[in-house]
Design a protein that fits this description.
Length: 589
């Protein structure tokens, strides 16, 4: 495992050295290097420097150029415009850098030296309720952030903060107590996720009907809430039945999403019950929270209701009940003090932004968050239908996640079948690829737009072979694998002595930016920038194919090997990048 400095960072360093040699009075100025279309890189830093030193920028630039040592790295440097530097690196430096990447399992991507511990709160559905598209976003974005952060060396603790507590359980449990066999399954029988959900759904409806029509049942349901909170054993056992049944359902949906969820990481709201009293006592004693009309509240100068009066965060209701906020505050204490987190990341719907702002600020006032421990909401927008309105079924209900997944897989399977014009795939292979393409399409659509933005759910577009889709990337990967198979005994080998064609250079320079992309994406929690990087990589590959034949008899053997080397590294980069996004790259499509 050797981290490989990118060409950009090597050039940047070279320029910085030349700058301080040529202009010692400038101190350690930043040459401000960036990728450029005119040359490989452009440095703009000398302009600002000239202003500061009151010199002529073009003259200063010429001085810096003079101080650059000739060598294997730089092909050409010219002073252009008011005093920019246009820099072209040698083909040799490009191929050698990529060869060093290829020799490393991690493609030369360094570990973050400042890595710490991040607790990620994601994939948090609610017990006894259907999962919807919002839960999909949290799961998909959260899982990608887990993989990306772990890849950079961060220690990541996963937390699925499922909604498994609250007054609605009084009604459900009371119904189950009065109809004790509703959730029973025959011994030894495995229950599918759909079966689990449909028995929960039936139970929910039946108990709701009774609750709304029968005053006496309503009263018994209220008493049941009290018994639940008091920890009455029979009540707890019934509650546990709901949780277990729901987990069967959750795990089956996550399985469909091709995502692993581990039992130990599922710590729902109920997991913090023992801490709630202490949390409130501490907040009240420290004066962070105050009693107001019987409730324990935290006030904020900048959070006002429509009436202009401050809207508090309610930590404990006047009847003594605890809500969502008390649980979240207790979870912060647990994650910081027991799990040793220095970052708390919450992948939650943007509509909960005010809740988290108030919770984080309260935790800061209480000292649970501070300069060394930060909390961030990775907020995501709403999933919209084709019509641009919040995604609903024709009947106006929120769309069930499972239906979406099934539909996407069905659709993708058709695409795979049509594409297989020569009938080379077995039915089984078509089904397997259909699943990988369909699930990939849903994930990619979610990950390729900035999380904060709402996005339109459009299946046709998502499984389209052209454009910014996962299928396009999967085909790019499979096509490379197919060329490698056809190359037979000729394997990839780097030849730094060869001159590169423009399309080869463009592809290669983009490959070299993988490390920097990962670092940026991890630091800013922006998986869509990884998706954009991979899409650009596939686009460079398409241009490369247009302009450069790989397996052609007209090519000398070393050109074939060098091109195989370039596309092989492209395939590995695509595979690694897609894996970080949770998307499979089938070997054949
Ligand atoms: N279960 C909640 C929902 O479905 C999301 C939980 C988010 N996490 C948290 N720590 N509050 O909306």
């Amino acid at each position: 495992m050797a981290s490989v400095p990118s060409l950009a960072s090597t050039v940047q360093q070279r320029l910085a050295d030349a700058l301080s040699a040529a202009l010692p009075e400038a101190g350690s100025a930043d040459p401000l290097l960036r990728r450029s279309d005119r040359a490989d890189f452009q440095a703009n830093g000398i302009l600002a420097l000239a202003k500061q030193l009151k010199g002529n920028p073009r003259e200063l630039a010429a001085k810096v150029v003079g101080a650059l040592a000739a060598g294997d790295l730089l092909q050409e440097i010219e002073v252009s415009g008011p005093g920019f530097l246009n820099i072209t690196v040698t083909d040799r430096a490009i191929v050698e850098t990529l060869a060093a990447r290829a020799a490393d399992d991690r493609l030369g991507v360094p570990y973050n030296e400042q890595a710490g511990t991040t607790v990620i709160d994601y994939a948090q559905p609610n017990v006894a309720k259907e999962m919807h598209v919002g839960h999909l976003r949290s799961a998909v974005i959260g899982a990608a952030m887990v993989e990306i952060l772990e890849f950079t060396g961060e220690k990541v603790v996963r937390r699925h903060h499922i909604g498994d507590w609250g007054t609605q359980f009084g009604m459900l449990i009371q119904y189950l107590v009065e109809h004790p066999h509703e959730l029973d399954h025959d011994k030894g029988e495995t229950v599918s996720g759909e079966e689990a959900m449909s028995s929960l759904g039936r139970l929910y409806k039946a108990s709701r009907t009774l609750f709304d029509s029968d005053e006496e049942f309503k009263a018994r349901a209220r008493d049941r809430v009290v018994a639940l909170q008091a920890g009455d054993p029979e009540t707890l056992a019934r509650w546990q039945q709901f949780v277990d049944e729901s987990k069967i359902y959750f795990y089956s949906v996550f399985g469909k999403l091709d995502m692993e969820i581990h039992d130990a990481d599922v710590v729902g709201e109920s997991g913090y019950n023992d801490m709630l009293n202490d949390t409130c006592r501490f907040l009240e004693e420290s004066g962070v929270a105050v009693r107001s009309e019987g409730a324990l509240c935290v006030f904020f100068d900048d959070v006002l209701g429509p009436d202009g009066k401050p809207t508090p965060l309610i930590v404990q209701k006047s009847n003594g009940g605890f809500g969502y906020a008390a649980t979240d505050l207790s979870a912060i204490r647990d994650r910081v003090q027991n799990l040793g987190a220095d970052t708390l990341l919450y992948v939650v719907d943007a509509r909960q932004a005010l809740h988290f702002r108030m919770v984080f600020e309260t935790a800061r006032r209480a000292g649970w968050l501070n300069d060394r421990v930060k909390a961030v909401q990775l907020a995501f927008g709403t999933v919209l239908g084709k019509d641009g309105k919040p995604f609903k079924t024709r009947e106006g209900e929120t769309v069930r996640l499972v239906d979406l997944l099934d539909e996407a897989v069905e659709h993708a399977t058709e695409v795979v079948r049509e594409k297989d014009t020569r009938g080379e795939l077995t039915e089984e292979e078509i089904a397997e690829r259909g699943t990988q393409v369909g699930v990939g399409a849903i994930k990619y659509a979610d990950l390729s737009t900035s999380a904060t933005r709402d996005y339109r759910f459009d299946l046709d577009q998502m499984v389209s072979l052209n454009g910014d889709t996962s299928v396009y990337l999967q085909y790019a990967y499979a096509r490379i694998q197919s060329i490698k198979r056809r190359a037979g005994a000729t394997g990839p080998a780097a030849h730094p002595e060869l001159a590169l064609a423009p399309a080869e250079r463009a592809l290669a320079l983009h490959l070299d930016r993988f490390s920097e992309t990962i670092a940026e994406v991890a630091a800013a929690y922006e998986p869509h920038k990884l998706a954009a990087y991979l899409y650009q990589l596939a686009s460079h590959l398409t241009k490369f194919y247009d302009q450069c034949q790989v397996l052609s008899d007209a090519n000398p053997p070393e050109v074939v090997e060098n091109r195989l080397f370039l596309i092989d590294l492209t395939a590995r980069t695509l595979h690694q990048g897609m894996a970080l996004l949770g998307i499979r790259t089938p070997e054949r499509l």
